[in-house]
């Protein structure tokens, strides 16, 4: 912006946030440089043009209306109003800025002033000068009350600022205004408006009076003088006032207190003071009370108060304040006896501080014991005075302070304490007693309000609870306005745990302020399409995470307190080594002083010392103290130490003690202490407070302390500017200037301002009553309008119309009021000059108005309503008919709503069915595509695994090389930087931060590169391992099956060998019998055939299988006699005839005839057959089928046994090992021989088979011909070598003797060297020769 010569400007005197703004006049401009003449000394300086701002000509009440809005303009406006006309209140949009005047302003407050602001429709209206009241805290209170009654929603007024900014006084003024408004609504304001003072008048009811009188009582017991404020609240207070939703009258109140600074009772820094009640009691008590309570003449007579030289406050009298406190006690309903009991306990706390201890051999009180004792003199007198005021014995009090009991299985063990430990126990008792007394007073205040509202019954219930949280009657709904007055931001030279809790509270409130003023404002404008520029602000979420996060300062403090040997240095080291703390940009560890660090808050950096944090955070209750209080003669003391009936903090006032709940541990003697963390209680209470505030509509009052010294009329710009920046006021100024304070949905806007242009609105309402709208408003807009209209919104149904129709009607209303801006589609005609921002804007669902435009329209609406009131009064009869018509229209609307609901439900059902069908189709298609994808992925898995492995190895190698190079470069650069900047510490720290950031970036990049490859490798490994496990399982199954198959084949070989051996033995016996028969026949000693036939015979077991019914086995066979066949053979031999192979009717005995085996052989065959179960059973079935078939072929007519021998059916050719494939050979092969040959062929190449088995050796020997099974005689080996059936001589002899020439099974297996074709041919030739 070009600056004209001679213009009044503000320019910065330096660079950075601590620079000051100075006033001057431009002399000349040269490009980016501007020459300015300073007002303070007349010198001309040359400054940068970017740091020069135009000055405003006059101050304004609302800083959003400044012509030039900037930091120096805001400061000058506040300073001009503060120093020129004692105007301490200024608006910044909806935020009220209150500057502490540090002096009384009698004409600025009072019931008359409240009445003026109550009667004004909008206290923050705009328009011509004189048509509105100036900014005031009463305006904010009236606005909150008006919104509560109009919208039916709870309100909250948050008074914030640093210590000494006037928060407490501002909160009292707001409370007085609210009680006056409630009193006026209930019909009691006539007498209240007569006075001119700033307090409550005599016309107020008991409830309002007690609410106001509770302030001085709580201030006396909870406020103290600090370095920045003479009346600093050392506790947080949230007062909630309840109003009747119909009449608006005050129905009750509830006071909640938070985190009383109990350590101030026993420790106070000079020149600060302890709590006001101590000094009021010392200097204001009557002579009788002083004697009864043994009070010294000055505060220096108490050790707790003598630590500070500050006794009196400027402009205040301790004696007068004491009388004010006594009157407040009377107003809230405390009797004289209760007041004396309360003040007596305050005196007892002071006397406890005068009790001293020394280490001695014997105690003066309570018998002899080692440890700490109370010496005679002043300490003994203080002990007796404290015991008398507490209602306990001096010996019992001394014993509770100097001993501890440890519970063991054998009983209680009493342990004496040292002098220092006894002093700590005394301080703990004093703090607990004062905190419990404060909680009791808060409960008494709530009980008094409940008694005035609900009667004595509710009061008794409220007294039982330590600080009830509500004053409303059970079951009734009440509107409420909450008033928060909590300690401000603190920063001293030495900041302890109390300052950390206080600053955490202010950080929470600052976050609440940011959320409502900044984030909601921006989101609202962006959602509605309002043309404005985004303004960033500083969020303090990182500070809250540092303080109360999962691994924040308070969480680590609680963990350290649970360790008995934890130290402050260890706690500081833990803070410095925890990544969540040390890695925060808001945390800075310090080497000096020890156990200290700095935290960057929203208001600036604060240095904390953790030297006393562990002791202050351990908020424990000594069991001996609880037992002593429970057994006291004083009723109030017994009530304070009564056992707990509900969890601590369940009631609102119970939170004031910083974690010491009333009546803790009287009946819990199993442990010495009852540990409670101060920080955990603080966080819990803050969570409850923020939860309550989030449900209310907030109103903000920012209190500013104009100078650090507290001087009246002095305004320090730099000091005030820092508070404005920290409080977010500067950002709120920019947003409020660029935004719109009034925003309502179209329906609510038309319902409120329809009087300015009634025709379009009436047309919409008539059309809405005649026919349903073509379509409903979008759900988002409907919900938004519903949220804006809850409690007191539109009931005409305009929200059901289309937005375009409502927008057209709103444009007509704005045009009629002269507030239609250019951005809304018209020209600005509301008195704004050319180039000024528009006073209105039409959003997507809402109407936006600036404060001045809204005030002007409100004035026009009030005028229109007032004019219409006279017309309405003259048409009363028509009004009756109109009401009837409205009722009929509403009935029609209900019917239409029911019909539309039915249609909508039908439509919803159809849409649900269609959506369900779509879901089913989608799932099926997804399944099909997924199966296709899985098949493709399985096929590509192996190739991907190989390729990805190669890529990963290459990438890892490249990463290693890069990391090594990076390490060498880092080492070299670090050495160079250290050599060059060794003496400059801040540059070294900067280099460290840069290196840390770069390494973190490199590590993250490396991790992001390796992470996909690593995941892919894991997937490949899982796939490969799954495949490997499946292969191993298949291999084990194959080996098991093969092992079973191998043993089955071995059983077949064993059976074959056994049958061959049995046949040979039988053949030998038959030869011997035949020889014997020939000899007997030759000498005539043989039995006749008739005699042999008379022998009893039995059927052969094998006759059924062989199909030969004529085969018998003698039942009682003499040696050498074998049935009719043998007899016939013997007869033929004796006659000299040879039995032919094909002779009919002659039964020739065969060497392999199983029917002639003994019965035990049959049983053995059965057992061998049992071995062929499982999967070998098909082989057995095949074998039996072949035998039966051959048996049928041989039997024919039952008399051709030789045909079976000649057919070659039992010639068992052995297939070659190379041709055996697991299936049985077709044709004339026996399964036994085939299995034996296959087993012998595959034995040498089978993996995993038993190393030493007899059947393997036997099978190998049979294969190579090393085992011979001779049929008799010699020459078997030669026959085997030549491929014949047996030896030639033996064969001829057997043929001559009547034996069959058919080769037995053993002989066939013996012919290993010859092929199967040769064996079959030899058998056929032998048959031909025999025939």
TrEMBL record:
Keyword Cell membrane (UniProt): no
A Pfam family matched in the record: IQ
Protein keywords: Actin-binding, ATP-binding, Motor protein, Myosin, Nucleotide-binding
Nucleotide-binding among keywords: yes
Residues annotated for ATP binding in this entry: 161-168
GO biological process, any: actin filament organization
Name by which UniProt lists this protein: Myosin motor domain-containing protein
Region listing for Actin-binding, in residue ranges: 686-708
PROSITE patterns hit by this protein: IQ (PS50096), MYOSIN_MOTOR (PS51456)
InterPro entries with a match to the protein in the record: IQ_motif_EF-hand-BS, Kinesin_motor_dom_sf, Myosin_head_motor_dom-like, P-loop_NTPase
Record family assignment: Belongs to the TRAFAC class myosin-kinesin ATPase superfamily. Myosin family.
Ranges for domain Myosin motor: 58-862
Source species of the chain: Chlamydomonas reinhardtii
Gene Ontology annotations for the cellular component aspect, listed alphabetically: actin cytoskeleton; cytoplasm; membrane; myosin complex
Biased composition range(s): Low complexity: 778-788
Coiled-coil segments on the chain, per record: none
Region (Disordered): 770-796, 820-843, 1094-1116, 1188-1231
Example GO molecular function: actin filament binding
Membrane-crossing residue ranges in chain numbering: none
Record field: compositional bias (Gly residues): 823-833
């Amino acid at each position: 912006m070009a600056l004209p010569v001679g213009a009044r400007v503000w320019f910065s005197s330096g660079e950075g946030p601590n620079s000051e703004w100075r006033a001057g006049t431009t002399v000349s401009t040269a490009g980016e440089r501007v020459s300015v003449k300073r007002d303070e000394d007349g010198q001309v300086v040359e400054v940068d043009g970017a740091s020069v701002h135009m000055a405003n000509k006059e101050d304004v009440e609302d800083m959003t209306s400044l012509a030039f809005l900037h930091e120096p303009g805001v400061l000058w406006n506040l300073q001009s109003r503060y120093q020129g006309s004692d105007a301490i209140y200024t608006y910044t949009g909806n935020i009220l800025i209150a500057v502490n005047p540090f002096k009384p302003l009698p004409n600025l407050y009072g019931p008359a002033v409240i009445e003026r602001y109550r009667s004004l429709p909008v206290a923050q209206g705009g328009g011509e000068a004189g048509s509105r009241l100036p900014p005031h805290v009463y305006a904010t209170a009236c606005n909150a009350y008006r919104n509560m009654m109009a919208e039916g929603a709870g309100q909250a007024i948050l008074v914030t600022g640093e210590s000494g900014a006037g928060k407490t006084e501002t909160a009292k003024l707001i409370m007085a205004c609210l009680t006056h408004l409630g009193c006026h609504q209930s019909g009691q304001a006539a007498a209240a408006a007569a006075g001119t003072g700033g307090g409550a008048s005599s016309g107020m009811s008991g409830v309002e009076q007690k609410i106001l009188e509770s302030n001085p009582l709580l201030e006396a017991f909870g406020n103290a003088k600090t370095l920045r404020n003479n009346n600093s609240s050392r506790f947080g207070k949230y007062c909630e006032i309840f109003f009747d939703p119909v009449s608006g009258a005050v129905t009750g109140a509830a006071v909640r207190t938070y985190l009383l600074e109990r350590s101030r009772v026993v420790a106070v820094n000079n020149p600060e003071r302890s709590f006001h009640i101590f000094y009021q009691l010392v200097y204001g008590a009557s002579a009788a009370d002083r004697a009864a309570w043994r009070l010294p003449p000055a505060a220096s007579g108490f050790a707790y108060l003598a630590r500070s030289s500050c006794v009196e406050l400027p402009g205040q009298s301790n004696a007068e304040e004491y009388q004010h406190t006594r009157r407040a006690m009377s107003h809230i309903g405390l009797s004289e006896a209760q007041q004396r009991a309360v003040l007596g306990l305050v005196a007892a706390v002071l006397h406890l501080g005068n009790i001293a201890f020394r280490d001695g051999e014997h105690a003066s009180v309570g018998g002899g014991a080692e440890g700490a004792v109370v010496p005679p003199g002043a300490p003994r007198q203080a002990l007796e005075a404290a015991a008398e005021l507490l209602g306990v014995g001096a010996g019992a009090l001394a014993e509770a302070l100097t001993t501890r009991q440890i519970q063991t299985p054998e009983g209680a063990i009493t342990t004496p304490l040292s002098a220092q430990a006894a002093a700590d126990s005394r301080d703990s008792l004093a703090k607990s007693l004062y905190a419990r007394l404060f909680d009791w007073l808060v409960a008494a205040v709530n009980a008094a309000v409940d008694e005035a509202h609900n009667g004595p019954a509710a009061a008794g219930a409220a007294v039982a609870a330590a600080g009830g949280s509500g004053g409303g009657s059970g079951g009734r709904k009440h509107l409420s306005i909450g008033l928060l007055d909590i300690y401000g931001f603190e920063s001293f030279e030495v900041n302890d745990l109390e300052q950390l809790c206080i600053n955490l509270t202010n950080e929470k409130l600052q976050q609440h302020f940011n959320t409502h003023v900044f984030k909601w404002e921006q989101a609202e404008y962006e959602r509605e399409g309002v043309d404005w520029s985004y303004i960033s602000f500083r969020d303090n979420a990182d500070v809250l995470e540092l303080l109360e996060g999962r691994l924040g300062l308070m969480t680590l403090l609680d963990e350290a307190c649970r360790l008995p040997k934890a130290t402050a240095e260890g706690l500081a080291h833990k803070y410095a080594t925890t990544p969540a703390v040390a890695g925060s940009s808001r945390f800075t560890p310090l080497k000096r002083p020890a156990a200290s660090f700095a935290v960057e808050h929203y208001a600036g950096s604060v240095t904390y010392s953790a030297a006393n944090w562990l002791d202050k955070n351990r908020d424990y209750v000594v069991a001996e103290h609880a037992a002593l209080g429970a057994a006291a003669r004083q009723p109030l003391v017994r009530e304070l130490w009564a056992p707990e009936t509900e969890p601590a903090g369940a009631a609102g006032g119970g939170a004031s003690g910083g974690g010491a709940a009333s009546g803790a541990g009287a009946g819990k003697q199993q442990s010495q202490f009852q540990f409670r963390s101060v920080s955990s209680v603080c966080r819990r209470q803050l969570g409850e407070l923020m939860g309550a505030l989030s449900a209310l509509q907030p109103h903000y009052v920012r209190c500013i302390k104009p100078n650090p010294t507290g001087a009246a009329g002095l305004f320090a710009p730099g000091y005030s500017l820092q508070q404005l920046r920290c409080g977010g006021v500067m950002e709120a100024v920019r947003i409020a200037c660029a935004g719109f304070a009034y925003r309502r949905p179209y329906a609510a806007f038309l319902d409120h301002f329809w009087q300015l242009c009634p025709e379009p609105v009436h047309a919409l309402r008539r059309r809405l009553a005649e026919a349903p709208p073509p379509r409903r408003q979008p759900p988002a807009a409907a919900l938004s309008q519903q949220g804006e209209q809850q409690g007191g919104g539109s009931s005409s149904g305009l929200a059901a119309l289309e937005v375009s129709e409502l927008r057209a009607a709103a444009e007509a209303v704005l045009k009629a009021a002269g507030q239609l801006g250019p951005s809304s589609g018209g020209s600005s005609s509301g008195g704004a000059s050319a180039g000024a921002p528009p006073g209105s804007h039409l959003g997507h669902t809402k109407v936006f108005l600036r404060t001045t435009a809204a005030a002007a329209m409100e004035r026009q609406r009030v005028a229109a309503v007032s004019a219409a009131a006279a017309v309405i009064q003259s048409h009363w009869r028509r009004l009756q008919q109109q009401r009837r018509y409205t009722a009929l229209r509403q009935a029609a609307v209900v019917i239409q709503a029911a019909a539309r609901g039915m249609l909508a439900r039908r439509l919803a059902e159809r849409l649900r069915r269609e959506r369900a069908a779509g879901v089913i189709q989608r799932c099926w298609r997804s399944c099909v595509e997924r199966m296709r994808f899985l098949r493709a992925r399985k096929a590509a898995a192996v190739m991907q695994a190989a390729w990805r492995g190669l890529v990963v190895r290459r990438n890892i190698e490249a990463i290693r090389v890069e990391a090594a190079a990076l390490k060498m470069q880092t080492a070299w650069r670090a050495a160079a930087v250290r050599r060059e900047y060794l003496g400059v510490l801040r540059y070294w720290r900067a280099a460290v931060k840069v290196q840390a950031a770069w390494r973190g970036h490199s590590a993250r990049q490396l991790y992001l590169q390796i992470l996909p490859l690593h995941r892919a490798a894991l997937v490949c490994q899982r796939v490969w391992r799954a495949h490997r496990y499946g292969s191993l399982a298949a291999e084990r199954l194959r080996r098991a099956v093969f092992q079973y198959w191998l043993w089955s084949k071995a059983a077949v070989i064993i059976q074959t060998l056994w049958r061959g051996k049995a046949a040979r033995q039988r053949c030998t016996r038959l030869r011997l019998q035949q020889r014997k028969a020939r000899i007997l026949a030759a000498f005539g000693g043989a039995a006749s055939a008739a005699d042999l036939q008379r022998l009893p015979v039995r059927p052969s077991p094998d006759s059924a299988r062989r199909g030969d019914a004529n085969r018998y086995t003698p039942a009682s066979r003499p040696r050498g006699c074998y049935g009719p066949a043998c007899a016939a053979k013997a007869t033929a031999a004796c006659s000299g005839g040879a039995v032919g192979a094909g002779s009919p009717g002659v039964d020739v005995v065969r060497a392999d005839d199983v029917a002639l085996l003994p019965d035990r052989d049959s049983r053995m065959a059965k057992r061998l057959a049992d071995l062929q179960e499982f999967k070998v059973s098909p082989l057995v079935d095949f074998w039996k089928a072949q035998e039966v078939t051959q048996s049928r072929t041989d039997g024919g007519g039952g008399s051709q046994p030789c045909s079976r021998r000649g057919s070659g059916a039992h010639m068992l050719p052995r297939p070659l090992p190379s041709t055996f494939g697991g299936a049985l050979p077709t044709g004339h092969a026996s399964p036994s021989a085939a299995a034996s040959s296959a087993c012998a062929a595959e034995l040498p190449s089978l993996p995993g088979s038993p190393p030493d088995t007899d059947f393997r050796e036997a099978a190998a020997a049979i294969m190579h011909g090393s085992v011979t099974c001779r049929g008799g005689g010699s020459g078997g080996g030669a026959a085997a070598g030549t491929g014949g059936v047996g030896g030639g001589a033996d064969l001829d002899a057997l043929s001559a003797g009547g034996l069959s020439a058919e080769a037995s099974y053993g002989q066939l297996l013996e012919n290993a060297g010859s092929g199967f074709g040769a064996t079959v041919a030899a058998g056929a030739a032998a048959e031909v020769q025999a025939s």
